[in-house]
Amino acid sequence: MSVRLAAVAVLTFALLAARTGVTAPGKNKPAREAEEPSVRVLDAEPATETPTYEGPQEAEPPPRAPLPPPLPDAKPPIGFSDNAVYIRTPGDEVVVFPSARLQVDAAFFPRQYPKSGAYLRRARVGLRGWLGGNFYFDVSADFAPSPADALANPDAFAASVLPATDNYVAFAPAGDRFIVQAGQFNAPFTLENRTSDAYTDFIERSLAVRALGVPRNKEIGVMVHGLLGDVFYYSAGAFNGEGPEFRNADNQPDAIGRVVLTPLGGRNSAFRRLAIGGSGWYGRHQLGPLFPAQATPGGVRFLVPRWVTGQATPRTLEMREHGMITAAAGEISLPLGTRFGMRVEGVWKRQELTEADVATPMIPISDTQLDGLAGYGELWLWVHGNERLLPAPGLELPLRADRVGGAPKLVDGVMLAVRGEFLKEDLTSDVATLGNPTRATTRVVSGTVGVNYWRGALVRVSVNYILNNWSGTSETAKTLKAQGAFEHELMLRFAMSL
Hints:
This protein is mostly beta strands. It is built from 4 helices and 22 strands. The strands form 2 sheets. It has a 16-stranded antiparallel β-barrel. Strand 14 (about 305-310) and strand 15 form a beta hairpin.
């Protein structure tokens, strides 16, 4: 009986195996499966139990498909973003932007001084970048030669023509909304001073900014700044107040700040990009540095801080920063579309100085005060291309590699610009016998017409014609007017920036 049952079980197993594809026990089965048969048949002798059928074994599952390869990094290791070439590691742990700037200028005058000719205005090499996503740096050096006698005669040139570069570190934990920046960089005073010299509308900044407002352009200090929703920009910091490349000489910091509001930002209005801003500067100096000379874009000086007296025993005297400095500036910028716009800035400044002998500069001789007021108005028009070729003026935010634009957009652009400006300065001294040639009043009215050709934001060719008119009661102003009430300058620039 048990043999019959075993035979029935074997036959049943065979039929099921034919339907499920399971190999019968002992029939061409792999060794592993043969060791563990699906059906167990008990010995026929002696038969004490009825054999139990456990059913067929399930088929082996098919092998898993191989995992897809990891997705490639969306950004290439070398690319172009924010008008700069970047090099990055996977994951953006380190992103660097090599930079270079070369500006070759030429100036031509009908007068004998300054001399006409070409010169190297800037020749910079630098490196900017991100470390870990939150830390940014900008380090650079300028190899353009300083004027031959700049060290021996610092009063012979405006401070803005001396080579000075950005060198700072920054912490940006919230993107462009909050940035802490420390080092040497453009002081946050006026829109034009916070616009890189690579992208200014004219070859040189205005008299209001370059001569009166921020004569040294850069300061050393710590600043907090940020852009909130393209509507509000803020910047404020503490600085040495003595220009670039110098430690604080008098242990007196200056407070400088600027805010800009776009009140109609985000609205569907022709004035949605109207920007209104203001800047402030407050400080105090004790026998500080030499007061900087002031000059036209071409280099004609109209404020001379060092002179030789006409006494029987000539003395060399100079004006030094000594006392309070208070300054304020206002700005209005109105782009209408992307091809036309206008801009106005004004600066008021009151600064206390002293006159001192060069032989004993730490001994003040007089109490002197400069009161200045200056401003400019500008119209610009893109006859070919538009303003999107250039970075937004007045911000100077850190570069970003996530604004990937592929290859550089080397499209052509031609911009025309016209600027009118004035400068009014009154210098008083309680010792009138020192022969200061700048004491009394100085007035300068100037007009500039400029044409800029752009190849993307990387190549620039500019031509500026400047017409200056002198007036005032200071000896320097009267001397300039005697040489001609109007002074003409023609300036050229061929530049490449990366």
